[in-house]
Fold this sequence. Notes:
13 strands, alpha/beta, 390 residues, single chain, Aspartate Aminotransferase, domain 2, three-stranded parallel sheet
Amino acid sequence: MSKIKDAFNSSIKIPFFSPSITKDDKKAVLYALASTLLTDGPKLREFEKNFAKFTGAKFAIGVSNATSALHLSLKALGIGRGDEVIVPDMTFVATANAVVHSNATPVFADVEMDTMNISVDSIKDKITSKTRAVLPVHFAGRACNIDEITKLAKKNAIPLIEDCAHAIGTRYHEKHVGNFGIVGCFSFYPTKNITTIEGGMIITNSRDVAKYVMSARNHGLSKNLMERYNHGMPWDYDMKESGYNYRLDEIRSSLGINQLKRIKILNVLRKNAFEYYNAKLADIPDIITPSLPNKWEEHAYHLYILRIKENDRVSRDELFRKLLNFGIRTSVHYKPLHEFSAFKKLKHCDLDNSTQLYSEIISLPFYPDITKKQQDYVISCIRRIMSNSL
Ligand SMILES: Cc1ncc(COP(=O)(O)O)c(C=O)c1O
């Protein structure tokens, strides 16, 4: 049925995800490979310029991935030992790991049942005298309640860092997410709305943050590679504070430039596939389809997540196993942070929604190139399983 092969098992008919890589993308990568400057060069600058234009931010700084983007953002705000950072309980571990890398403590906030985005009330409950940042995630590509979160952060004089890993193309009242707080962090991991394989981007409207990040991603040096070789003596640079090697190379940047040119069409294909699933799955018993965005939101449709209501016939895990038997790969986004061994030692409470959601959610195969025929197959299998005719 599918031209796309699953990377792990050849009997899989419908993979969970497949990145959209064109002939032009491959050409761009080969072209970049022929250059003598393979990292920290003109392709990175071009990708950054285009990403800043796309998001409307003053500065865009390419980095090795979104985890390093989050780490550098926390460092730019001077967050460290003894500080607390509020993150949603329902997110990928990287959101909290970046806080741990900064020697600070992640504090888990609960999420909304409907959008799975961080709950404003829960943030309020988790603010203490040690809170130094709030780090919401625009979950599955849907903007969180960013107006209320911005107000709350301002009222408490707490900086806001936005995890926009799922949210390339997500806008709220026409403003691209990542521009509401001090910094926004994006991921270009293969499953994301555009990919550079590994890769990330920081956007900010603060010159000071941009200046720090540009140097800190490059070991903390006072000059980048082009500045060193184009002006004066290449070894004539200083380092005021030790930084990191979090650079984005020319090959990945070239792929990113090409992918970004197609973001609008990629997101429209995602929207169509999302709406198709929603229309065809809505009447199946014990299923809750994801809600649609408000009219002031532009959704990036990063993931398609169903909820299976508690029932005495088919559990979420059973649905997962039966779909796999039909050659359909699904997943769960995510196991809540408080469930991980590494985070169990942190004190946490009042995470009822993320705990409940964890037992109910299942992410369906979802990518720009998914065909209606593939979706129909997924839908018909779910219908049969949920109506217990299997
Ligand atoms: C919400 C969220 N934040 C951060 C990350 C980390 O992204 P990266 O793999 O680019 O470091 C991910 C990756 O999946 C993510 O889903």
